[in-house]
Write a structure and sequence with these properties.
Keywords: Membrane, Transmembrane, Transmembrane helix. The protein is built from two helices and no strands. The protein is an all-alpha fold. It has one domain. The longest helix is centred in the N-terminal third of the chain and has 25 residues. The protein is elongated and about 45 Å long.
Length: about 60
């Protein structure tokens, strides 16, 4: 088992939630990159989950 992939997956998940939460608090009034920023956060969460699931041979 490679612990680096698990740690990296957890960090990506945390970063994804941080991006979405930061967007909701600070940037939602300005408009512009609405869809792209939310999609980036969701993408980071999915990549993190994939890394973790692949490490445990569930994917």
């Amino acid at each position: 088992m490679d612990y680096l992939n698990i740690v990296l997956g957890l960090l990506l998940i945390a970063l994804g939630f941080f991006v979405i939460k930061y967007y909701q608090e600070k940037l939602s009034e300005q408009g512009g990159l609405t869809f792209k920023i939310r999609t980036t956060g969701i993408g980071l969460i999915i990549i993190g989950l994939a890394l973790i699931l692949e490490e445990f041979n569930l994917l």
